[in-house]
Design brief:
The chain is 79% helix and 0% strand. By secondary structure, it is mainly alpha-helical. Helix 3 packs parallel to helix 12, helix 4 runs antiparallel to helix 6 and helix 8 runs antiparallel to helix 9. The radius of gyration is 28 Å and the shape is elongated. The two termini are 51 Å apart. The N terminus is likely disordered.
């Protein structure tokens, strides 16, 4: 769900920042649901997945010759147990690539794994994202930029004109504070920003020149934050697109699994799919836990005026890198586990 922005935000060019700030991992995944269903379940006789399934069948037929040569070699030089256990692969390939037009067993299993990953991811968000911690931390990080963009035009004015400009900007900011309170309730960080704007507007209290300039900021800093917020939004969509890409390549991995090699392509495909799922879950865990540190730390202290640019940089650059590293390590562990399990089963059969 995206935060409904006020009409005034379109005038100051920051509505996209607020919209992206309220975008959740759940809404991103839901936006890709129809594409998954259209590709993997609906009319798979004629769509892209159906074409790749036919190509996977072609690969399977082509590699069947190599499989039979290895099978006969094992039958001649080995005991019967090993070649007989290898017969499971042709049957498995035929079953997985059977396409009824409403999806194959492979496509349904792929959708099932994707739904499992999304369910685990959503459970992580539900259990840790109390009071919308993630969106609150994002909006807390950009709220000062929003207020500054309202006050910035008044900086070049003087005298009565500047006073009237500040009052008008403060009235617009009040609508923003009310919108935040409707979303998150009464929060210390909202009160702190509101008091700072009021002190500048009505010349009450002591506002240092540094604090004044910090609140006004610059259009460059606003653009940078907007870019970084959009970057983490793009990363989450990239994760969804990568999962879908790997899913569509499943028939090719299955079709090539008859090659007489130790590492079956289907194991590598499954590992890649699960690794992307791990990256998705890892990113959201990192983002939510870091957001909780901000909201429950400086967000609760009225005397602290934190610079949260680091949080935006962390979300846009460092968290994606860290989640991919975790996914790579997790994928390697998954691949070893699958390979060892397959070898154990083969030895037992």
């Amino acid at each position: 769900m995206q935060l409904a922005t006020l009409p005034i935000f379109a005038q100051i060019g920051i509505d996209e920042i607020l919209g992206n700030g309220a975008t959740t991992a759940q809404s991103i995944a839901e936006g890709w649901d129809n594409q998954w269903l259209d590709l993997l379940q609906n009319n798979t006789s004629n769509n892209l997945y159906g074409a790749l399934t036919n190509l996977g069948v072609f690969f399977a037929v082509g590699t069947l010759l190599f499989f039979m040569l290895q099978f006969l070699k094992d039958l001649i030089y080995s005991e019967y147990a090993r070649p007989i256990s290898a017969l499971i692969w042709p049957f498995l390939v035929v079953i997985l690539l059977s396409n009824s037009g409403n999806g194959s067993i492979l496509s349904n299993l792929t959708l099932g794994v994707r739904n499992l990953v999304n369910a685990v991811n959503q459970q992580v968000l539900v259990t840790t994202n109390t009071d919308q911690i993630y969106q609150q931390a994002l909006n807390m990080s950009i709220a000062e930029e929003v207020a500054g963009s309202l006050l910035r035009p008044c900086q070049s004015l003087t005298g009565e004109q500047q006073n009237k400009c500040f009052v008008k900007a403060s009235e617009k900011a009040n609508e923003l504070w009310q919108e935040y309170r409707n979303l998150y309730g009464n929060r210390t960080w909202i009160d702190r920003l509101e008091n700072k704007v009021n002190q500048i507007t009505y010349n009450t209290g002591n506002v240092s020149e540094n604090a004044f300039n910090s609140l006004l900021g610059s259009t460059v800093q606003t653009s940078i934050k907007n870019f970084l917020v959009s970057l983490q939004y793009a990363f989450q969509n990239l994760i969804e697109a990568t999962m879908l890409l790997i899913a569509t390549l499943g028939p090719l991995a299955v079709g090539g699994s008859l090659l007489p090699v130790a590492g079956k392509p289907i194991f590598a495909w499954l590992t890649g799919f699960l690794s992307i799922g791990i990256a998705k879950i890892s990113f959201n865990i990192i983002a939510v836990l870091t957001a909780a540190v901000i909201v429950n730390g400086p967000g609760q202290n009225a005397n602290v005026d934190p610079d949260l640019m680091w949080f935006i940089i962390f979300l846009g650059v460092l968290a994606p890198i860290l989640s991919l590293l975790v996914a790579a390590a997790g994928g390697f562990a998954v691949f070893n586990a699958i390979s060892n399990t397959a070898s154990l089963v083969k030895d037992r059969i």
